[in-house]
Structures are given as C-alpha cells and as structure tokens.
C-alpha cells in the first residue's frame, strides 16, 4: 500500500482476534491452506444427528460454511488493517497528529467506562487475543480519524441570513403547530352503553364515575376520561371531525369509530401557531450548518476513498473492495455525519464493552 506492505504476521494475529470476537468458545480461524479439514471436523462434531428421514449434512456443505466464515473474517481484518494505513497516511499528508498523552487519556477513559474492575479488563485481554498495544493502536487511529474529520468540516458552518430565510419560506409547515384540544372521553363497545354513559353525564354523574363504569379505554379510564393535547388530524377521522367541530364544554356523542363509540367534551382549546422567522432562526441555522458540514465530509469521503484505493494493491487471496485490483463495492448509503468512510476507520468503541 503506497509502497508499504502489510505483514502476514499482522494479518494472522488479527484473524485470531476476529475469530475470538465471535463469542464462540475456543473459536479458531478456519484453515483454508489445509482444505478446512479442522473446521469441517469441528463442525461435524457440533452438528446434531439428523431427524429420522432427513439427509445427513455432507462434508461439502460444512466446507462451504467454513469458506464463508473465513471470507467474512478475512474481509473484516483486511478492512481494519487497510484502515490503519489509510488513516495514518492521510493524517501524515494533512499534518494531523495525536500525542501519546492524548492516546493514553482516551484509552483510560474508555477502559474505566467499560471495565470498572481491573480484573475484568485483564480477563478481556486474555480472552480477546488482543494486547494492550493493539488497543492503543486502535485508540490512536480513532483519534486521528476524529481530528481528520474535524479539519475537513472546519469553517464549513457559515450560514447567511438569506439562506436561513429561504429555508424558512420553503419549510413553513415544519415550524407550525396545529390546533390542540384537551378532551374528556368515554369509549364503549356498543351504542347502548355510550347512550347510557351520556345520560349519566347529563344527569350530573362525574367523569371519573362514568369513565370507570363504562369506558373500555384503559388509559383514559384511569384518569377520569382525560385525553390531553390531541392535535388536529391525529385522531380517527370520525372522532377528529367531531372533536374539532365541537364547542368547548359541549357534551357530544355517541360518535361511531372503528374502535367503538365515543362520548366526549372539549375542556380546553390551544390555538394553532406558527413560529416566526426570528423564533426559528437558530434551529434553521444549526440545520444548515449540519448540512454544509455533511456535504464537505461526503465530498472528502469520496475523494479519500478513491485516492487511497488507487494506492492499495492486494495479493491473490486477499482482494477486497478496498483494493485497486479487488472486486467492485456494492453501493451503500452515504456515511453518517462524523465518520470517515467504511473501510477507512477502526470501529468505534475501541475498548469493547463487557467483562
């Protein structure tokens, strides 16, 4: 890669780490050079006998499983090793540096969060196949990746008043609140029960009493029929039409809906509102800043990937989509804000959770 080779010993080491990270007891890397014999034997031992009348799993089928597992581990490890090279190379080109003190500080913070007890950390080191040097390397690359990202988006947060006003005018609905109404309701299964509930309310019985006796809606029933802050257009259509056509304090119903029959009254009305441009300005500014930074990052990601892929030549048996001479990548969604492209950064959460 750019004139520098990835050592086979590093590949083998990280393959063992990747195999152990699957969580399987005594997990081992499938052995392609030996025709996957050990892997097939292990799978044969772990495969239960077929049910009566069912065919036995063949060695060929088990070998296919081993091949798939090996390729998955290989691609995962090559992506990690290549990312080490890409990020360090980019950091050197951009004059981005991380000090040993920064690495140690980040490492200690993540270690403390993931492993409150020292013995848990030691157990992780023993079972994961990683050394502390491995983890420190990943912390360093993670910090470099973050600094590269910060440098790429720096100065890309400028937003003009005109851009804010244009966004507001094109998206006024996003800054509007519909009319809302507080209700007291009783929901019954049949019309007869709804008529009885309405008659009881007309005769002066309390909503608490009537809701408890007649309502089949557990949520509103428990609060005396209260159904606060219902926005226009969010209720079942028949109920929505009735609620937003009713006068405050009027007892209405029964109203037939797909859920049953409603009797209700409107107890409070909150008028529809529209945020002004001045009120929405800060929210819009933050949105546009984020969009501008994401645009800059997306552009960098594309250029970064193309440049470093062009410098990455892979040997037979080790070709991935990150290689100049590898298979074509399957299109993926745009990388989320705050990331360097997949295949170019070590995984987040460098010191793994767990004990």
Structure, explained:
With 355 residues, this protein is an alpha+beta fold. It has two domains: 8-156 and 289-310, no CATH class; 179-271, Roll (Chitinase A, domain 3), CATH 3.10.50. The protein is 51% helix and 10% strand. Strands 3-2-5-4 form a four-stranded antiparallel beta sheet. A two-stranded antiparallel ribbon has the order 1-6. The longest helix has 36 residues, at 59-94. The chain starts with 7 loop residues before the first helix and ends in a 45-residue tail after the last helix.
Low-pLDDT segments, ≥5 res: 333-355
Overall structural domain count? 2
How many helices does DSSP assign?
12
What average pLDDT do the residues reach?
Answer: 88
DSSP strand content? 5-15%
Radius of gyration: 32 Å
Provide the helix percentage: 40-55%
- Report the sheet with the most strands, covering strand number, pairing sense and barrel closure: 4 strands, antiparallel
Strand order of the largest sheet: 3-2-5-4
Number of strands: 6
The best one-word shape is extended
Secondary structural class: alpha+beta
Cα distance spanning the termini: 36 Å
Order of helices and strands: HHHHHHHEEHHHEHEEEH
Protein name: Peptidyl-prolyl cis-trans isomerase
Domain PpiC: 178-268
InterPro entries: PPIase_dom_sf, PPIase_PpiC, PrsA_foldase, Trigger_fact/SurA_dom_sf
Biased composition (Basic and acidic residues): 311-322
